[in-house]
Amino acid sequence: MPSMIPTPTTPLFHSGGFPAGPRADDGTCTAADHPGVECLRWMGLKIACGLTPDDPALLRQHQLATEQLIGAGVLTPAPAQEQALRLLYGAAHNPLLPWHWRWACLDQLQRPLAALVALARTDEALAARVQRFQWCLSHSPLKES
Questions:
Q1: 45-77 confidence digits (pLDDT tens)
Q2: What is the pTM of this model?
Q3: Backbone angles phi, psi at 20, to 5 degrees
Q4: Which residues make Cβ contacts (< 8 Å) with residue 20, sequence separation at least 6?
């Protein structure tokens, strides 16, 4: 049975025996490996879990980071905005999170929703998804302010 443990001669290891991660400036970095995407994931985790409920600026920072990564061509606009929308909607409807955090998340739904409405003008499938989301939001026990 072959060994599953990487050795210094396998491509996983480079100088010093440490794994070499992709860098944003070497041309081989994919969107998933981009440091900005990793930062976005961390902010998303903090939002979803309500780790900093007294920092509503985090919600704005997350949206700005999403828009910057879209502008830089690292993320595709529609999926990135849909993910931001799902994150905020999910956090807003999570009864385990503090009420004021849930309302802050609900208030921030406007920006990714507006971006998706603009993108949906040229994409019928996206327009249908946005319409379904708007219906869900209108029938939610929480209402967008």
A1: 999 999 999 999 999 999 999 999 999 999 999
A2: 0.75
A3: -95, 115
A4: 13, 14
